[in-house]
Amino acid sequence: MMNLLEHDNILPNSLAESVLYSMRAGGKRLRPILMRAAFESFGGRGDKVLPVAAALEMVHTYSLIHDDLPAMDDDDYRRGQLTNHKKFGEATAILAGDALLTRSFSVIGQAVGIQPEEKVYLMSYLSEAAGPTGMIAGQTLDMEAEDKESTLDQLEQIHNLKTGKLLTYAIVAGAYLAGVKPETLDLMKQFGTYIGLIFQVQDDILDVTGDASVLGKPVGSDEENKKSTYPKLLGLDGAKAQMDKYVNLAHQCLEQAEIKDSRLHELTVYLSRRTS
Amino acid sequence: MMNLLEHDNILPNSLAESVLYSMRAGGKRLRPILMRAAFESFGGRGDKVLPVAAALEMVHTYSLIHDDLPAMDDDDYRRGQLTNHKKFGEATAILAGDALLTRSFSVIGQAVGIQPEEKVYLMSYLSEAAGPTGMIAGQTLDMEAEDKESTLDQLEQIHNLKTGKLLTYAIVAGAYLAGVKPETLDLMKQFGTYIGLIFQVQDDILDVTGDASVLGKPVGSDEENKKSTYPKLLGLDGAKAQMDKYVNLAHQCLEQAEIKDSRLHELTVYLSRRTS
């Protein structure tokens, strides 16, 4: 009784192990890279973005853990290693995802060197981008679209929500922390949307033309799952032409935002040509 | 392409239906009631607590949806109706839980009439109370304790984390929004811990002596699940004596905090005598 408040904060080993397993699985760290690039492209300097980038990567990792669950995509491998639930069991995987999502907000809330108004903006926007009108809406629509023919417009909507929202968050948060004007923030939101679509078209193309050993996951799964994809709707050449359109529109956003630094341009090209 | 940003925010019907099903299932609304009582006991007036109370109830509801999942407690009924996954399927239930948890933070972030510093405190503290060193730690330890004998100290630790953290949040958030001193906040944290334990002892007692039709869930499930409980460790009379201890300690906290209003005293007594 006397020590009731002593065992106040406990991080159980099994939970820590499961969370760290997925956080350390690697991946491209694309969202942190985009956030830092956006921050520095607008003249931001120092480590102010780091906690926000970590929080975003935590949210991204949680979404992968829950997406892989048997009741969802039922995947056994991710980034070349067993998925979280295959390694630790379903219950721990659900809790590990919940833990990463929940904790991400206090990582921003407790960050040093970010003002309270900025924290409220970044936490609220993360909640929206990842929440039921953002990423979770995309996941829901994606599930409902299985085994159905989708139109190009529906496909864009799903990807914009499911993938685009968090990628856009990375870019907008970086620009916001560098102190850009609201008009520029709107341009970066648009840029983020194109980046999300470029990412997804290339994902679909790689599922047709990619190398499983480079990708770290099997190819041809879209065909197997009867998923609507860009190559299926537009043909492989049509999908590549669609990508070029998105790349041009993304570059236009950056020019309108008057960015001198070339890093976001380079990342746009990288994403359109990536092999993994 | 032109309307890319038009379908920016979508809340799919199926997701909304699943989320609202669980939010509207009722329950005691204990956490909102405690938050408002704490707020008004310290002289708070107006509706400032409402969005924070709603956010907390959302987090509580998410935790019930995920706890009921087949991989976790595998429950078919909750509050006298089918559990979320029984009604909407497992995938939607996982997403509904994720949606409630994620959205809760922007409900606080977008609240009117709360200062940015207050919002950062309330959002960060919610993340801690519900996260991997709070409620999720409790859930993990509870799973690991299944089919094992626990000591009274271990039992207290699990309940303090799993149930106590969110109940304490309710009380501390209410007191905080009323503008109390840090020392008083510490006293209310202690009070919240006792409230959590009182809640749990009575839960255990009701599982032995309660009426399933009043409770809205079956009794005797602890015995069936071989769970360690207060009556099992201390006997039924011992459990009741333990509760009286907690009730006295809770009242002492309120007296030290110099609360004139009797509502928190009354709620303490109610929780120790509740039949559902």
Automatic annotation (TrEMBL), chains A, B:
Recorded hits in PROSITE patterns, A to Z, give: POLYPRENYL_SYNTHASE_1 (PS00723), POLYPRENYL_SYNTHASE_2 (PS00444)
Q: Which GO terms describe its molecular function?
A: transferase activity
For this UniProt record, the keywords arranged alphabetically read as follows: Isoprene biosynthesis, Magnesium, Metal-binding, Transferase
| Pfam families for the chain | polyprenyl_synt
Name any cofactors this protein relies on.
Mg(2+)
- Alphabetical list of InterPro entries matching this protein: Isoprenoid_synthase_dom_sf (IPR008949), Polyprenyl_synt (IPR000092), Polyprenyl_synt_CS (IPR033749), Prenyl_diphosphate_synthase (IPR053378)
The Swiss-Prot or TrEMBL record describes its family as follows: Belongs to the FPP/GGPP synthase family.
Official protein name in the record: Geranyl transferase
Top-down, what is the taxonomic lineage of the species of origin? Bacteria, Bacillati, Bacillota, Bacilli, Bacillales
